[in-house]
Structure formats: structure tokens, C-alpha cells
């Protein structure tokens, strides 16, 4: 009886001993899980607290602002601050010209030529030029063609005085050239083969050159054709032509018909209805003693001089007779 009652008790105790390790193992695993969860939760909270502010971008205004309001004014001031512009130094001002009158480029280099056919196209002006009684108005390009033959030896200085008075009337807006004809050659007052601006200095140089030495000495006969060819090559608006007997005489006599034909080639009619030509020839008939028997200067003026194209400059006009 005693042996039978003790066996169930030992069996029950043996079964209870087998469950204890399982319970302890489960408890330990649950503890580890709880500890792991606590560590993970702690890390997440720490990361949330240390996370930087998130930025939202406005691509319309290209300005960036934090979601929270801290330091908003500071950020806006930094983003919207104007970009400083680079300072560009101004170039130094050119040195002023002390005396512009000391250098006249037009006197040195000349002036552009005006093609034929432009008479009357210059700007309106009140220029009135006279030479030994002949007159031209509103002319900007003037050439003087003056007889320097032996027949004018007695009256040489009177002719030059009339020329100088005419030069003094010119304005700086005008241009001029002077050509003397003698024998069959043209004597050009420098600068040769071009016009020059009628500045005070240029006019003074021309007068001084004419008065200097033997640059202009009357003699021999006269043939104006070469001088007229040079004059037309300068494309003037007006030519003042002065002579006593332009066809000359003796060995240097020029046939009137040949002279008039040469002028037709040099200065043809441009307008058949009006008879207008490129250049006006204002003819001055200088008469110291005798009349011009052929009347060549009058015929030139009739064809090329226009109204008032002929002027008689005689002893009375010179103040030698009442």
C-alpha cells in the first residue's frame, strides 16, 4: 500500500520539473523582445528630434522658406537681397583741343568733289559774290579764270585788286580755286587741281602766293582752253571768266568757233526746255583801251552765262573816268 501511493506523486513532480525550463525560456525571450522594442522606439524618437527643418520651394518666385516660422525674416532677407553690381570705371575724357584753328583738315586734304548737274542743289543761302562787277548768287563752288596775257600788263594790279576784293566776300561754307591763263597753259594758284575751303587762312595764302615774286606776271598771248578744261574738272557751280580779248591775236590767237565748240563739250546743255547747263560762266569783259571786235565774251555769256552773265568792266567802272 505504501509503495503504490508514492509513485503517482513522483510522476507528478517529474512532469512539473519539465515545464519550468520552458516557462523560463519563454519569459526570457519576451523580455528580450520588450528590451529590443524599447531600444528601437528610443532611436526613432531621437531621430525625430534631430531631423532638420524641411524646405518647400516656390518655383514661381524662386524663393525658399522653411515650413516652420522660425527665422523666416532672416531667410527672406538673405534670399531677396539685391545682388551688388560691378562698378565699371568710366573711360577718361579726351584731352581738349587747345586751338582748333591751328589744323584745318579741309585746307590740308581738300574737299569732296560735286558731280556735274548738281547746280542749285546746295542748301539755300544768301551768298552773293561779285567779281569786277559780275555777280553770282547762292554759289558754293567758285572758280576764277583770269587772263594773264601781255595785253593786261598795264591793268594787272587793278585786275588783281578786283580779284582780292571778291575773295574777301567768300564765306567758309564756300570753296574756290584760281587759275590764270597765259599762252596755252594754265597757272593754278595752290593747291592745284582741287578746290579749297574759303577760310581766312586759305584766302590769305592765295593772295600772298599771287603777290609773291614772279608767280603771276602778265606776258605773251592768251589761250583760255587749257585753263577752262582745268576749271571744269573741278566741278564748279560758277566760273568767273575775265579777259579783254579772249581769243587773243597773233601766234596765240584762238578761233572763235573753235573756242565756242570746246565750251559746248565742256559744258553741254542738260535741260533742252530751259537750256540749263551744269555751270554758269559769268563773263567779265575788261576794257582798258579798245573794244573787243569779235564780241566773243558776249557770245560765251549768251550761251553759258544765263541772265546777267555778261559784265563790261571799262575805265569808268575802274574809276578812271567820270
Model description:
This protein is α/β, with parallel strands linked by helices and 322 residues long. It folds into two domains: 1-37; 112-313, von Willebrand factor, type A domain (Rossmann fold, 3-Layer(aba) Sandwich). The protein is 36% helix and 18% strand. It has helices at 2-50, 72-80, 105-109, 156-168, 200-211, 225-233, 256-266, 296-304; strands at 55-58, 63-66, 128-131, 134-137, 141-147, 175-182, 185-188, 196-197, 238-243, 269-271, 276-277, 280-286, 310-313. A hairpin with a 2-residue loop joins strand 6 (175-182) and strand 7 (185-188). Helix 6 (225-233) packs parallel to helix 7.
Keywords:
322 residues; alpha/beta; Rossmann fold; 2 domains; 7-stranded mixed beta sheet; 8 helices; 13 strands; 18% strand
Task: Count every beta strand, where a strand is a DSSP E run of 2 or more residues.
Answer: 13
Count of separate structural domains: 2
Which architecture of the largest domain does the CATH hierarchy give at level 2? 3-Layer(aba) Sandwich
Structural class: alpha/beta
Provide a compact summary of the structure:
The chain has 322 residues and is of the alpha/beta class. Helices cover 36% and strands 18% of the residues.
Per-chain topology:
Elements: H1 2-50, E1 55-58, E2 63-66, H2 72-80, H3 105-109, E3 128-131, E4 134-137, E5 141-147, H4 156-168, E6 175-182, E7 185-188, E8 196-197, H5 200-211, H6 225-233, E9 238-243, H7 256-266, E10 269-271, E11 276-277, E12 280-286, H8 296-304, E13 310-313
Helix pairs in contact: 6-7
Amino acid at each position: 500500500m505504501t509503495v503504490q501511493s508514492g509513485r503517482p506523486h513522483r510522476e507528478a513532480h517529474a512532469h512539473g520539473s519539465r515545464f519550468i525550463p520552458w516557462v523560463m525560456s519563454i519569459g526570457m525571450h519576451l523580455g528580450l523582445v520588450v528590451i529590443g522594442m524599447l531600444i528601437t522606439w528610443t532611436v526613432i524618437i531621437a531621430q525625430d528630434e534631430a531631423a532638420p527643418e524641411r524646405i518647400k520651394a516656390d518655383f514661381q518666385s524662386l524663393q525658399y522658406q522653411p515650413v516652420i516660422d522660425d527665422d523666416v525674416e532672416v531667410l527672406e532677407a538673405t534670399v531677396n537681397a539685391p545682388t551688388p553690381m560691378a562698378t565699371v570705371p568710366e573711360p577718361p575724357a579726351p584731352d581738349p583741343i587747345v586751338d582748333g584753328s591751328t589744323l584745318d583738315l579741309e585746307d590740308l586734304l581738300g574737299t569732296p568733289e560735286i558731280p556735274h548737274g548738281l547746280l542749285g542743289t546746295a542748301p539755300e543761302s544768301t551768298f552773293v559774290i561779285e567779281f569786277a562787277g559780275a555777280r553770282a548768287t547762292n554759289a558754293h563752288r567758285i572758280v576764277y579764270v583770269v587772263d594773264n596775257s601781255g595785253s593786261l600788263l598795264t591793268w594787272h594790279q587793278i585786275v588783281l585788286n578786283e580779284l582780292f576784293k571778291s575773295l574777301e566776300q567768300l564765306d567758309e561754307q564756300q570753296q574756290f580755286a584760281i587759275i590764270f591763263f597765259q599762252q596755252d597753259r594754265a597757272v593754278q594758284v595752290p593747291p592745284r587741281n582741287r578746290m579749297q575751303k574759303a577760310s581766312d587762312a586759305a584766302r590769305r595764302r592765295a593772295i600772298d602766293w599771287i603777290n609773291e615774286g614772279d608767280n603771276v606776271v602778265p606776258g605773251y598771248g592768251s589761250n583760255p582752253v587749257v585753263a577752262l578744261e582745268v576749271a571744269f574738272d573741278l566741278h564748279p557751280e560758277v566760273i568767273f571768266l575775265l579777259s579783254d580779248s579772249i581769243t587773243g591775236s597773233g601766234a596765240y590767237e584762238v578761233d572763235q568757233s573753235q573756242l565756242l565748240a570746246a565750251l559746248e563739250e565742256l559744258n553741254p546743255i542738260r535741260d533742252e526746255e530751259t537750256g540749263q547747263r551744269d555751270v554758269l560762266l559769268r563773263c567779265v569783259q575788261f576794257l582798258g583801251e579798245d573794244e573787243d571786235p569779235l564780241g566773243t565774251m558776249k557770245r560765251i555769256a549768251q550761251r553759258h552765262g544765263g541772265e546777267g552773265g555778261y559784265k563790261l568792266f571799262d575805265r569808268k567802272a575802274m574809276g578812271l573816268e567820270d
